[in-house]
Structure formats: structure tokens, C-alpha cells
Sequence to fold (350 residues):
Amino acid sequence: MKLVIVGGGFCGSFIAKKFDGKSGYEVLLIDKKGYFEYSPGLIRMIGDPEYHEKITVPYTEILKESKFVKAEVESITPEEVRTGSDTFRYDHLTICPGISYPVYLERKEDVHTISSGREVKRLNQDLKKGDHVLIVGGGLIGTEAAAELAAKYDDLDITVVHSHDRLIERNPKLSSSLAESFLRKKDVDIVFGERVVDREKGRFLTSKNREIKADVVVWAAGIGRDTQFMQDFRAEIRADDGSLKVNDHLQLNGGGRTYEHIFAGGDITDIEEEKTAHNALRHARLICKNIERSRKNKSLKTYSVQKNPILLSLGRKNSLLIYPPYGFQGRLPALIEWVVERAGITFFQM
Ligand SMILES: Cc1cc2nc3c(=O)[nH]c(=O)nc-3n(C[C@H](O)[C@H](O)[C@H](O)COP(=O)(O)OP(=O)(O)OC[C@H]3O[C@@H](n4cnc5c(N)ncnc54)[C@H](O)[C@@H]3O)c2cc1C
Fold:
């Protein structure tokens, strides 16, 4: 059976590894990069570009017997996947391209996202340009980025602009106040209830006409879903925000039709839950079971949304463990976070 996997992040790499070398399966993984990147570890690369080596595993190392193609997928049909130069037919397909992190400004120079190792390396270069850093967005990534910068650089003048009235607002209030007091102790300025909407000569303007001087900007507000490659399917398989609609078995599903041989997993799905690596791996495990079960004509397993603990890094020696309604901050959560990172990467290396 030909199993094609689009996207080798948490979800796709897990599935590829599980079926690699399994009898009866011919596995092909397609990704535009040549390696798996442990994205929660990207924060550690701020000020330490060499850390990239510690959080990446080449796909050729993950896969012992399966095929890997480094290419961008341009279109998918119910029978085949097309890149710029090749077409691959499949029996089963898993779509897991993750999400993107767009910058909502016309002029994007000196504006960075923490979306890939390459991006963080560019940010590190630009940090040499000046000491005023603006972080747009106080969600998980913006808060972690502010904490990492504040913990590593004493001389930076850091401002966080967040459109809500507290940091990481989808989490319990206690964790928001712990994160806020950590940043305030490190002298980070936080502006609540405003959005960055424009820029002018080294100054960034907010929705309330506040001017903020910034030499470098980290943009961590808003996400995008690039699923243009699904245009051969009926429009209803995509939600308004571009995410892919799935049924309880994580099969592509929309407009009254279920594509029984196509699964989607990870951040790209329209499931209402936090977009986390933990959830992407839960999807991957279920998809593996369901591919096997559908081959054997067994009834498929069902996905259920769960509330999971979240680890938020506040500099290298300090993390926040959020376990609703609780929040614990300190070295122990930082140690747990480090162990989770090492275990996650070792899994893909073995
Ligand atoms: C800075 C940062 C910190 C984070 N911290 C945490 C955390 O502490 N805990 C947590 O649980 N989660 C965290 N997350 C979220 C977590 O990384 C994501 O939820 C997880 O990576 C989603 O997995 P995925 O498999 O859906 O997609 P991804 O891991 O994003 O992988 C998608 C893959 O698809 C490939 N791809 C995309 N489009 C195409 C295409 N057209 N053709 C070919 N290949 C394509 C990409 O190259 C990529 O390899 C963090 C994310 C970031 C960015």
C-alpha cells in the first residue's frame, strides 16, 4: 500500500516513522525542508544559533527504509500529490503541513517570526542592529520570546504589545500573572489592549496611536493556513480560516463527503483545541491506528479533545507549567521542559 505523507513536522514525522519498514507499506514523506525541526526549541536559538543542531534531525536519519522527497507540495487531488517536478500516486494520504506565521505589516524589513530555525538565525543577525526590540503578541510564543531575550540580554529595551488585557489569555489567570510579573521584573514594558498596525522610520504605531521605537521586531500575533494546494477538492473541505475539516476519525470531511483514504492531522485541522506539538502527536497516533484498522476493515478509532498541561519557557532556567487551573513556575518546570525536548528529539533519532 502506498502511503504518502505531506509535511514532516510532529504529526507527519511520527506517522512516517511508525510505518517505516512495516510490511505491506511503501512510505513516502514529502517536506520542503530536509529535516525535522523541534519547533518548541526554536526559542532557545535566540542568541544561540548553534542550538539549531540540537533540535533538528535529518529525515534520512528518521527513515531507515522509506523514501523522502524534499519539495514543496503544490497540489493534491483525491488520487495524487504534485510537487513542481513530480507526481506521486497514493492509496492512503496524510496531510500535515502545520500552520504559517504571517506578518500583518506592509513593510516587513527588520520584522521576524519565530517560525523556523532559518528565521531565528536572521533575527539573531538583526539583534546587532540596535537595542530596542518590539514583540508583537503576548501569546505563548511572544511571551516566551520576550522572556528569552530579557534573560539573555541585560542591555535590551524590550516592549511587548498585546491586543488582549492579559498575557497568554487562553490560559488560567494565575499563569498570565506569573508570566507578566516575570517579564516586569526583567524590566520588559507591556502594553495591553493595542495592536501594532503600521510603521514609520524606526517607529511602530499602535491602534491607539502610540509610537514605539524599535530596531528589531518579533512578530508573534496571528496564524495562517496555506492550503491552496487543496483546490482540486470541493471548497467545503476547508473552513473559512483555511484549516482542513476532519471527522472524528481525522479523515478529510466536508460538503457531505468523507475522503476515507485521506487523513489530516496537526495544526492544520479545524479541531477546536490549542495548536500544540502534544496534540499533533495525539492526532498522529490516532491516524496510525486508523490507517491500520481501515486496511483490515475494522471500525475506526475516534479522537477526543483533551486539556493538556502546557510548558512555557521563561529563559533557560525558568519555565511555567500550566495545568489548569494551576500554574507552577521555576527550575523544576524548566527541567521537565528540557527532558521533554530531549525525549522528543531522541524518539526521532532512534
Ligand atoms: C516558537 C514555537 C514554540 C512552540 N512551543 C510549543 C510548546 O512549548 N509546546 C507545544 O506543545 N507546542 C509548541 N509549539 C507548537 C508546535 O510546534 C506545533 O503545534 C506543532 O509543530 C504542530 O505540528 P504539525 O505536525 O501540525 O506541523 P509542523 O510541526 O509545523 O510541521 C509541518 C511541516 O510541514 C512542512 N510543510 C508545510 N507546507 C508544506 C508544503 N506545501 N510542502 C511540503 N512540506 C510542507 C513544513 O516544512 C514542516 O516540516 C510551538 C511552536 C512554535 C513555532
Remarks:
- The domain at 111-217 is CATH 3.50.50.60 (FAD/NAD(P)-binding domain).
- The helical segments are 10-19, 59-62, 117-126, 140-152, 173-185, 277-295, 331-349.
- The pocket of flavin-adenine dinucleotide is lined by residues 6-12, 30-33, 39-40, 42-43, 72-73, 96-98, 114-115, 141, 229, 266-268, 275-278, 280, 311 (CB under 6 Å).
